[in-house]
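quick one: shikimate-3-phosphate bound model?
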Amino acid sequence: MNFHKVHHIKGQVRVPGDKSISHRAVMFGALAKGTTTVTNFLQGADCLSTISCFQQMGIPIENNESEVLIHGKGLHGLTRAQQPLDVGNSGTTMRLLSGILAGQEFESVLTGDASIQQRPMGRVIEPLSQMGAGIISIPGNGCAPLQITGGGLTGIHYHSKVASAQVKSAILLAGLYANGPTAITEPQLSRNHSELMLRMLGAQVSSQGTTVSIQPEPVLTGRPIQVPGDISSAAYFIAAALMIPDSEVRIRNVGINPTRDGILRVCRDMGADITLENVIDTDGEPAADLIVRHSRLHGTVIGGSIIPALIDELPILAVLACFAEGTTVIRDAQELKVKESNRIDVMVKNLSAMGASIRGTEDGMIIEGGLPLHGAVIDSRLDHRIAMSFAVAGLASDGTTQILDSDCVKISYPGFYADLRKLTL
Ligand code: S3P
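yep, here:
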């Protein structure tokens, strides 16, 4: 797909439901007793993989697009799948499901696409093994496919080396099935959607600083869940409006959970004009309309404890940094190397091809902003966030930007190009 420079972006957009929350609504709804009705569920390929895995384990799920109904069977209601469970491209499905399967008295195999089979699973294999699960990487390289023989779990207090909500959630979910309390301490606080939703469904979860603990065998009860818009999807419109002269957009109903709002803090620090209206709170998940206007930006340093609160937004922030005066340093972000692609390599290669001054480091990137960008052929490496980042870059660059495998955006935002186009009219 090709992109060209536009004069402005203007208007309103409503981004699809939050990916992290949509996954959790299906998984936790399946473990609750009774029906969980999810509104504004993200109909992206990753979340559809989660639905299909739970259907294969005997959970009736009705997907009516606007509403998803999960008829949960309680903590011990899952049954063994007849086939290996295929998570597609979804790291969240793979890692959270590993935690749930560690608690089941049956054997499972978890697999997925070529990208997921290269991502590190040792980070869940280690703690779940310590709890007593039989969990092995079938190819023996710490990656999927995984074979999991669950049951007989012991509660542990795990100190994780990475700030990862996927690891934290896997351990908490296994903790539902342990013989005593389970705790996890992470180096920085990662997104806390699991804690909030599990508590809302009836689990005893307590958080103190970067430690979360959970009591086993709660009775979880299904209930309505409203999913706010995904700030990680809103990020592309935020950046586009800031970068492109004469732009102003209103992005409706965006989740602004403080463990996810790092992009707003960084953009404001760079001089961005972003205001919030209609702030609401649904069961501890706050949301608001974001009004974003074109702004003169300056470089900044992005590192330390804010990284987990914007980890998925770093590709588009790297694009944004090219349009800011001065130097932007992204550091402490080595996790970028193990996402759907190696996002440090891919950003450096593609932004360099467009004429940017960017250098990769061990744990991030250094960008000298202010150089005009020109079009190039961009290999998305089938990474949805790379494709969306360069679509936005293309709207602010001379010449033609061609994105290869552009339809990979279906992972998290199937209507992305249509929504972006509407704002350019
Ligand atoms: C997610 C956690 C993050 C994030 C991913 C979604 C989640 O991954 O990058 O897109 O839903 O828990 P890590 O837990 O690996 O940091």
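The longest strand covers residues 273-282.
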